[in-house]
Structures are given as C-alpha cells and as structure tokens.
Amino acid sequence: MVRAPDRVFERFADAWAREDTPAAVALTDGEAVKKTVESKILRGELKAPMEAYRGERVEIESRESASNGEVTLTAKQVVFFDPPGITSGIGGAGAASFRHVVRMTKTPAGWRVASFEPTFLEAGPTRRR
Length: 129
What we know:
alpha+beta, four-stranded antiparallel sheet
C-alpha cells in the first residue's frame, strides 16, 4: 500500500533528480527546507560527472510516524545518467545512489517535505564491459 506522504516524496525526489528546483520547492514547507533544496541540487551532490539525466527510481526503506503526525521517511534513490562522452539509448550508462532522510508534514495544501537531507552513496557504470 502506497501512502500519501510516500507519493508526495516520490514526486519531490523525481523533481530533484530532474533538477527541476521550482517543482521540488513547490512540494516543501518552510524556508529552511526550501534553501536546502536550492543549495543541494543533484549535480552538486553527485560525485561523478553527469552529462544527461536518464531516469530514476525510489525505494522507501523505512517510515517512522511521530505523535504530532509527522512522518520521517528514509529512502534510497537511484539516478540513471550518461557520463560525458557516453550516450546511451536507454536507461543511462551510469547510476548513482543516494540515501534521503525526509521529514514529511501535513499542511492545508497536503503533505509537504519539511526537511530533506540527501547523502551520496556511490556511482558507477550500469553495464560491465
């Protein structure tokens, strides 16, 4: 069963991976998280050269609910990309993984990201030669 906070986070993570900062910021609540999203863009957090974005996937690893209604999600996101000089037709020649710890809060506008901390895990080729 996919929960509402998960769906909103997945939309947020997709916007972040596509480097669509306005769309990601629109799913946040508060000035501090807005500044984090604006300063921690994908290419700044990715420790590998990236030429083209080729998609992403998100897996929710854990979920904690607080007594005040907030939900903290820990998720792994894999971003597929092409490194400079390597163009793939589908899927991306490289993949980078991130762990996100995200606090979600319910607002009058629906669930929003109240805090966001991306952590780069690793990057490498998707195909072995």
